[in-house]
């Protein structure tokens, strides 16, 4: 309601990441707005939660169809929202659509179990929705995260109130429009805008049954303490990629680039610690540096661009400060790591930098220990499999890990010992919606995508049915 929002004092200023200009101002939602969204969601849930899975699926499939028909418009809006290249933004829109299609397919499969008990009695289980769920998004995949959270929530019969990051507030609103156009009950998927205070109010609301959060470890810790309600936490990473000398080098180089430079390096699962077996290190580094230097940086709306702008000026400054710190600690900047000025004068205030490869890295360096969340790859060398595994696992995080080798036995032996929720063999950073995604250790709790996610958006009710008399002890 615009009338209500105009009363709010706190404002979000959204910048266009690739030109550095003010894009819009938004009012932060407060208690009243959130109460209103929750009331609407409860009303919608009373309708949606009672529908059959097939009925819900039909509406969700319509939402997926609308996304497909608006693909280019959403992708262009995501470029303005986030700064990533149009090529990647289109893939994000596709992933959002596929996720909605996938969970629409699962909606009618939700079922329980029948258990026979003595004397003809029996019990059965029912998988029931939780109610009104909160989704909190990070800024790196704004549209996709909103879909990855809402699709399983809605498929299981829940309502969702979604709060995007204030850094990228725009495209989640398009998803709300699309669900409404597809015919979900009014308020079933609503968007509230704001930062940490809005997020806190939303998560702590007594009628919010579950929180699904994507963001940093420190914020995730706060969210996990908000109350006795189920939480899914998709947090940060500092993931390792192990490149053995028996690998297909061409694929290992491609994999290392995919592990570091998608979305300007702003990907939670990025494999930023690249461990390379000593005997192939010179060859690997030469090829990685050559290809990194040839990455086309600039206007993210151009088809030829492969790296757009980082998400904000403060974030760019932070990433550059990590590169400086790495230099001070003895790493070699093999390429990049500098502010990039596009030739188009309209883009001169955008947040661009050249992708960076750091050589001569050691495990103690800040660039190897901390999540930089920018286009900075740290290359380390190792000699034995045992050593590489020990060093790869020597972190409090455990989101993802990769291994490149042609030895099938080594590949499976290594992933068995890697302490990470998503492991890749001879590839990196693919996220098909049919498979679960999520972290070990401090990288998170729970999973997104795949069949298992149904368990995180529903609750199991057990019903005991007595067919005889009550055998009372009294
Ligand atoms: N594992 C994953 O799937 C995944 C995906 C994307 C990003 N990430 C992680 O997210 C981080 C970058 O994103 P970010 O900077 O937006 O993270 P962030 O933790 O700063 O913010 C995430 C969201 O939480 C909200 N928030 C902040 N304080 C809150 C509070 N006290 N209560 C409730 N909500 C609050 C923010 O407004 C934002 O919407 C990185 O660490 C990255 O690894 C993880
Ligand atoms: O950023 C981490 C991986 C991901 C992609 N989409 C949502 N999360």
TrEMBL record:
Annotated GO MF terms: oxidoreductase activity, acting on the aldehyde or oxo group of donors, NAD or NADP as acceptor
This protein's name: Aldehyde dehydrogenase 9 family, member A1b
Top-level taxon of origin: Eukaryota
CDD domains according to UniProt: ALDH_F9_TMBADH
SUPFAM superfamilies: ALDH-like
Keyword terms of this UniProt record: Oxidoreductase
Active-site residue list: 234
Native species: Neogobius melanostomus
Family: Belongs to the aldehyde dehydrogenase family.
Pfam families listed in its UniProt record: Aldedh
Key word Oxidoreductase present: yes
Domain Aldehyde dehydrogenase as annotated: residue spans: 11-463
